Amino acid sequence: xxxxxxxxxxxxxxxxxxxxxxxxxxxxxxxxxxxxxxxxxxxxxxxxxxxxxxxxxxxxxxxxxxxxxxxxxxxxxxxxxxxxxxxxxxxxxxxxxxxxxxxxxxxxxxxxxxxxxxxxxxxxxxxxxxxxxxxxxxxxxxxxxxxxxxxxxxxxxxxxxxxxxxxxxxxxxxxxxxxxxxxxxxxxxxxxxxxxxxxxxxxxxxxxxxxxxxxxxxxxxxxxxxxxxxxxxxxxxxxxxxxxxxxxxxxxxxxxxxxxxxxxxxxxxxxxxxxxxxxxxxxxxxxxxxxxxxxxxxxxxxxxxxxxxxxxxxxxxxxxxxxxxxxxxxxxxxxx
Length: 336
Ligand SMILES: Nc1nc2c(ncn2[C@@H]2O[C@H](COP(=O)(O)OP(=O)(O)OP(=O)(O)O)[C@@H](O)[C@H]2O)c(=O)[nH]1
Ligand SMILES: [Mg+2]
Known about the structure:
By secondary structure, the protein is of the alpha+beta class. It contains seven helices and 18 strands.
């Protein structure tokens, strides 16, 4: 039977008829679907494919309200065009930069805020937090109260940014409500909007995130997803490269340094990922069957690998990046 009852973990409509379909539960008495149950209790993840059409529809609905919006973004995977969201949602909006705990402590908040100078004006405020480490959540809550226009506050952003984690944190800190949203390192954990009452004055509304086709998370298995998602402060790994040397990350990505003076490459990626250096790339064809992109690097730029992190390159030069053709890479002005 299809009920009107929704899973309190991911928002999907519960049903007890088809085990292969979304929302399946053994009994409609349950509050959560089988997929959420398995994620919560056994850390067993099941990939779901969502279309971005649904995400866009939700955003358009949010844009029709006058409610405050929290736009959550992952500091390690800052979007290329953070301002784009403004074209769809004119509401008051706080940009919440999450996962502060995984950036090296040496990276100062002021520097990040300064880096985002160009887009600062588009948001009421930019606030850096860590949902997992409970960092700056008190301040965020104060500012939510300050900007709120009604009881409802929407939480939006790309999949995996930590929207559900943030709401769970707020509930845990400030509410008697015992509901817990499902969180996971896989994309598309939350499947539908979910209203969670914090108190008489605040209702947080969780939403499914935008899926980025170009994210590496969509092109590796669940075990690798866990490895790629950092839980701890990243220890930057620096390699001094000369021309004709290269770096290989987990047999997935090869970065050849093909032109330029001696240069410094610093990797900001999960500590769990294996990295090796080739001292002479000429006779080595590892990963060369992958798609290759050539970048003309200027001074102080990052090579961003969507979903994985970035490589800070200090001097100018030319690099060839070999990677699965569906994974997006791009260059930007250095964040750090
Ligand atoms: N290191 C770190 N990881 C975090 C933090 N917040 C969330 N995460 C991790 O990020 C992953 C995604 O978290 P979710 O809360 O499921 O993200 P979401 O934005 O709700 O994702 P969707 O529901 O798929 O849109 C999980 O592995 C979380 O543990 C944080 O502050 N620090
Ligand atoms: Mg979620």
